[in-house]
Structure formats: structure tokens, C-alpha cells
Amino acid sequence: MLPNTGLIRSAQSGLRRQCLNTTIQHRGLAAAASGSFSYETGDASGVKFASRDIPGATTTLAVVARAGTRFQPYPGYSEALHKYAFKGTTRRSALRINREAELLGGQLFAYHTRENLVIGAKFLRDDLPYFTELLAEVVSQTRYTRHELEEEIVPAVQEERKKLLKDVHGMAVNSAHAIAFHRGLGEPLHQTSSVAVNKYINNEWIHDWASTAYAKSNYALVANGAQASEFSKWTKEFFSDAQIQTRQNAPSIDSTQSKYHGGEERIAHDGGNALVLAFPGSSSFTGGSWKPEIAVLASLLGGESSVKWAPGFSLLSKATEAFPGAHITTQSATYSDAGLLHVSVTGKATDVRSAGTEVVKAIKAVADGQISQEDFKKAVATARFRALETGQSTEAGILQTGAGLVHGGKAHQIDELGTSIGKVTESQLKTVAKTLLEGKATVSSVGDLNILPFAEEIGVQV
Amino acid sequence: MSYPTMAGFIMKRPWLKNWMIPVAKWYKQAAGYRQLGLRADDLIPEENETVLLALKRLPPKEAYDRIFRLRRAFQCSLAQTLLPKEQWTTPEEDRLYLSPIIKEIEAEKKEREDLDVMVPKKPATS
Q: What is the CATH number of domain A15-239?
């Protein structure tokens, strides 16, 4: 009575595989197969892959492509491409893909960052073959139809735009990136106007872009919670001939070395206040200019509390205790060849203004060496913890590993990262803070411009 | 909605096909829509969701041309005239531009219905 034989067949074959893999099925949760936190890497006819077998009943599998907003040829292309993930392919429809994933109890996800585009799935360990096949299909056989673009993708892109325009902090961070890196890394993560949709996005061009983004040398496959032998077997089977058709007008990837510029931008906004103060930072660990002292400086400045009901003990949370209306976070955003260390202050305009001044004072104090030994040790420990914790968490780990593979051919090994942060000395920290203050800063304020300070008023050069 | 057709039945039988094709050609010309500059797919009733969606999915140029043909045909109808002979739709121009999209949408709907009523059966795991 069921005409959709294709689904039944694939579900059955998935189940058949499950029955064959009885050894996996009977393994308890706690019994690790190898239990290593390092990734094992390999190559399947041009497709780089990495896997690590953390014990557990589920697997996370993702394709990480070097196709984030930094590399997109026109605005909005990475966003449109990530939203095309799991849409209709030449073999099955978007609906069928989703229903099948649902039947197997899996979850599909896709997102993009400034440098990478990630499409992946989380599922029960035994369904590895099915989802490997699915990702190979999505990468190589998506149809990029016009009606899917118009009916589903464009409205989604427009919603993202509305969301971004409401979010002062997001706008300030985007603006800081634009000032700091101009093009490339400076491209906004989501659109701030309809220009992209009205002028640049159309399905044929996105298809061209896909053929560049999903060229075999441009992506890596990363699995978390899969046995290396099993994973490499299925990757070879499905990804060996998962080659997206090359297209005539395919844009090339522009990977010009990022250059830091710096400057100031002020945007009037009614929905809140945000001040982002940014400095040139460190590249990712696998990138060329990795500076562990930036990570330590970020955690030394801090701002967020790691305990409840207390302002926290980092330099910035102590310095801005008097301004409870301001919320401060410090982040070291790392990319493959550059980075941005940014302190964001959000909240009440007057408090943001005063806190901004305190932030600069705190950095000056670090440059003058006025920090206690204890604070320094705490900062190193926090920085190490954060780096290791991110590496250990499944999703961030997958992103970092895939990015490492695809940008530098090297997987992200968190053990080495931890050691490198542990070696930072106080004098290194002092030097780096001094260079930051001497160079051009990036200041972006979004909100009530009457109150929000200019860069000069808080004491940094732009 | 695509219209009922015996084309599949006839096309499978070469003797019947050879016999029917001249009749079909004559019938299409005699139906009269070509003399108003229309195409066969212009005659599909559009008052249902499937066809409305298919019309939305038409490429902009096709949609524009369709409206042009319809308005020209209305004008002819009001004026109780036919188009001059050189403006009649030729058999080559009279291609299916809408029905493939309609079929695609119908297939999508059918797939959705099938998936909705499906009962997955898992074999007992060993």
C-alpha cells in the first residue's frame, strides 16, 4: 500500500546495516572504542576527513567548507548556500530528506561563520552510512532550484536581516569587523540591507558558487563519535565520486591575506547601546600567526562572571563594578590568517560610556605591568580551560578541526593548544598589551550617539 | 491541475500513435485557440492552488509573455476577430511551459501525502 518504495528501501538498508553491526550495537555507553580526544585524519580521493571516537551512542558528522562570508564572491552568497543545504537533490526532495532523517532520529543542521560553511547531522551511531551518503548527496547533487530560493531561502535571508538590524551588539561586532578588515573578513555575517537579495542572489549564480565551495579540495569531512575505520570506509564509498559538476562561471576563492586597518564607526540605533572596542588579535591555532598571549589577555580582561550573583573577578568586571547597567564581554575571534580581540560593552548608554573608559584604563594597566601574579595565573588557567573546553565540545571541535584541515591541511589538536597557552609569560602579555595600545584601534558604537563616546574620548587611537 | 489525457496510452502503441497524430494535429488547429495567439497551456484553469503556485514559479519572462497572450486573446474576443494569420501560434511555439511545473507540484503533494500516511515498520532488532 506504500508507493514510496525509495524511502522504505533506504530505511531498510539502513536497518540491515544496523543488524550487521551488532558489535557496535551491543557496546555499552561507557565502553570507549578508543576514547582519544585527538582526531585521526585521512584522505578519500581528494576529500580530507578527520574523526575521533569519543564514547557515546551518537555521532556528529559535518562537512566544513571554506566558503564563509569571507570568501563569498557577492554579498549573501554564503548565507544562501547554507540555506540550500538539505533542499531538493537530483535523487530526492527536501521533504523526503527531512522525513528520512526524522525517521532515523537524526537532526540536520547548517550554518556559516565568517570563514566556514558547515552542514552536518547528529544521529545514532549505527546510522553513519546513511548520513554519510546524505551529506555526499547534498554536497554534490543539490539542484539549486529557483522556486526553493524564492519560496524558502529569500524569506529566510530577509528574516535574518531583520534579526540583525534589531541586535545592536551583532551590528557593532559586524561593524567592527568591517572597519578592521574592510573586505574579506569584514563582510557582514548576515545582510544589513536587501541589496543582496534584489541584486545578487539568484539560483544559477548560487549554483556557480556552490561548485566552487563544494569542490573536493575546498571542504573537509569531520566526524565526532565514529570509529575511524568505519568512518573512513563509508567516506571512501560515498565521497569518492561525490564531485559537484564544475560550472563555467564558477567564481574563484579569493584568499588574499587579511590586513588590519582599524578606525571608527558610529551608527545611530533606537534599540539599545553597544560599544565594541577591538584590536588586531591572533589567528587560529592552525593558522599562521597564532599568539597565545592574546587568548590570555582576553581572559584576563574578561568581564563576564563565571560564578552566579557576583560581578566576577576579571580585570574588567572589577573595574566596572560601579556601572551595573553595562554588560562586558571580551572575545578573541580567531580566523585562519588574522584575528580580532574585541571587548563589547552593552547596556545603558551612560554606563556604556563610563565602562568604555574603564576598559581602556584596564588595558593600559596591563601594558604598564600593574597586574598581580595571581590575576595572571588565573587568566592563564581560564584561557587554557576555555580553549580546551571549546575543543572538547562537539560542535566547536568539529568546526575548528574542519577549518584546520581545509585551511592548512592540519587538524586542530587541542592538547598542543593547551600547552602553548600554558607557556605564556607575564612579560609577553605586557608587550602585547602595549603594542595593541600603540597601534590603531577599532571602535564601533551603535545606539544613542549623543551619549556614546568617540574613540578619542575613551583614550584610544584610531 | 493537469487535464485528463490519453496521450500515455496512445504513445505506447505505435500503430495507434501513427493513426492518431494527424487527427490530433487537425484537432488542435480546429480548437481555435491558436488563432487567438494562445498556447495549449494557457487554457489550463488557474482557479486552484496547484496552478496558482505553478504560475508563481514561472520564470519572469514566461509569466510576462503569458499575460500578454491572454490579454491579446481577450481583446480579440471582445472585438469578435481573429489575429492576422502571421500572428497565429505555430505548432512549434505551442509547447508545454506550465504543465511540467504543475506535474512537479502534484508529485510534491503526493509525496507529502504518502509520507504522512506511511507507517514505518522496523524489523525486530537482534
A: 3.30.830.10
